């Protein structure tokens, strides 16, 4: 694969190209109808594994962060405040190596289950870019791709922004007219994603018990990335009236999805132990409200606890925000409070998770009925085709996006 030398990701798409009569842009025939779930078999040529991306060395850090914050006018001096997290680890994010491992594990499991689909990998913000992956697929004669985003939940940054970047990359590569891309559904409540968290929490609780702590002395903190309240309120299908969370925050689908998964994992692995959903990694101006509580504040406010178990419920792998925000900052906060602390693993390449991704692929290849799909929480099976107006970013408005109804 030839990698572009320009460190900038593809420019924003100027428009969306639709086939005659199509509802969903750049989609396969059955997904174009716009139905929430595609229960008709679909032939795909390849899988597009899509990730956030990360720098591979010190010289990459600032160009990478410029890509991440493109259009927001953030000066390099402020980017350096975030760059120190990457520089602490030699300027190299672990995420690309993790994606290489996931790609290899996914290819191996696909072959074991008799699914003849190659996997191409592209990043939103660093090499290999999504347009490079699409050009690689096109050169191999692959015109129908099924995309897997390495993000499990519904929000602008975890779903719609991927869909926008796929549209950007298609236009940049000049492939709108001959390449179609669907995406697997949001998979936060698929058993394959949830199982590693259940196993990890169960093991951590056993370790806490072995260390002499009673259930009443333990608190479980389910951690995920905070997002602006405005984005949270608009996450998921806008036709649904999403309830406020326990703090009165209008968290939309994003907060409710996390709460239900956390509740399920806690019930399976830590019954009778107190838990709460907390947030991390907030950025932006202090005047902009984000989902709370911050994990460090939650730890500081714990009363009567001697042990804390951190479950990174919002994350696929041990990338920078897990290694820095949880393993460094949150762990230090807990230790400064004199608390025993453990952080459980992310799914990574856990066999159940990899097998779950193959299962998501087969849902679309087979046209599997919704009633036969895995979903361990009350919200049930998420749509295959994103609903109109879902996960709006109020600061930027609706931009061209694929794999969903317009806008």
UniProtKB/TrEMBL annotation:
Biological process per Gene Ontology, one example term: heme biosynthetic process
EC number per UniProt: 4.99.1.9
GO CC field: cytoplasm
Main subcellular location: cytoplasm
Catalytic activity reported: Fe-coproporphyrin III + 2 H(+) = coproporphyrin III + Fe(2+)
Listed CDD domains: Ferrochelatase_C (cd00419), Ferrochelatase_N (cd03411)
GO molecular function terms attached to this record: ferrochelatase activity; metal ion binding
Leading EC class: lyase
UniProt keywords, alphabetically: Cytoplasm, Heme biosynthesis, Iron, Lyase, Metal-binding, Porphyrin biosynthesis
Residues involved in Fe-coproporphyrin III binding: 93, 162
Keyword hit for Ion transport: no
Pathway(s) it belongs to: Porphyrin-containing compound metabolism; protoheme biosynthesis
Keyword Transferase listed: no
Annotated localization: Cytoplasm
Chain segments annotated as transmembrane: none
Binding-site residues, Fe(2+): 225, 321
The family this protein is said to belong to: Belongs to the ferrochelatase family.
Role played: Involved in coproporphyrin-dependent heme b biosynthesis. Catalyzes the insertion of ferrous iron into coproporphyrin III to form Fe-coproporphyrin III.
PANTHER family for the chain: FERROCHELATASE, FERROCHELATASE, MITOCHONDRIAL
The protein's name: Coproporphyrin III ferrochelatase
Gene that encodes it: cpfC
